[in-house]
């Protein structure tokens, strides 16, 4: 049986990134870019299939729940969105820690800089974002600095735990230096600044 040339091309195209992904020496940045490429290919495939089937394809709506903080002063003084300056007792069901890298189900990455055991935000925000989902309101919610490689406009998002998975690699964001010190390659996370550790001592 003869293999069509386009199948050989696709196979060769997939082998190179797969080698980087499977290599034990591969860096987290390479894995990140590989995941981004795979996400782009999936999106292209969905659009292509929809076109071939003559279906109107609409990309899934993004629900990144970005917190509208305009200045560093807002960030420093808000009692909400996982950024409130009060001591957190770590509950067993709080999955992520300050400094850990997370990936949202919509594909963008970020670093945790705060969390609340239950959503702690103005009621209009909870109504708009959680849309009556009480499970989201009663679940841990995280303040996340979104990587500017994924969202060019710097954003802090307040994200529910169920939409996040653990990830690795460095994050780029202009407010990173305000919350975190340096990236620890061994732990695959950022180390919190001393003032932030005071509020999250068990992280």
Automatic annotation (TrEMBL):
Residues 93-193 form the Hemimethylated DNA-binding domain. Pfam families: YccV-like (PF08755). InterPro entries: Clp_protease_adapter_ClpF, Hemimethylated_DNA-bd_dom, Hemimethylated_DNA-bd_sf. Residues 1-18 form the signal peptide. Keywords: Signal. NCBIfam families: yccV. This is Hemimethylated DNA-binding domain-containing protein.
């Amino acid at each position: 049986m003869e293999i069509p040339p386009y199948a050989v091309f696709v196979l060769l195209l997939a082998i190179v990134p797969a080698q980087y992904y499977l290599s034990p020496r591969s860096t987290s940045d390479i894995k990140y870019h590989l995941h981004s490429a795979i996400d782009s290919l999936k999106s292209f495939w969905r659009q292509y299939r929809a076109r071939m089937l003559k279906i109107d394809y609409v990309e899934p709506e993004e629900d990144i729940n970005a917190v509208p903080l305009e200045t560093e002063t807002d960030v420093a003084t808000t009692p909400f969105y996982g950024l409130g300056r009060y001591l957190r007792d770590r509950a067993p069901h709080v999955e992520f820690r300050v400094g850990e890298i997370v990936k949202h189900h919509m594909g963008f990455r970020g670093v945790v800089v705060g969390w609340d055991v239950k959503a702690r935000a103005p009621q209009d925000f909870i109504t708009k974002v959680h849309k009556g989902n009480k499970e989201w309101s009663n679940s841990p919610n995280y303040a996340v600095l979104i990587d500017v490689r994924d969202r060019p406009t710097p954003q802090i998002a307040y994200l529910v735990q169920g939409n996040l998975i653990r990830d690795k690699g460095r994050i780029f964001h202009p407010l990173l230096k305000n919350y975190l010190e340096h990236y620890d390659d061994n732990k695959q996370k950022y180390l919190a600044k001393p003032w932030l550790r005071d509020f999250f001592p068990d992280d």
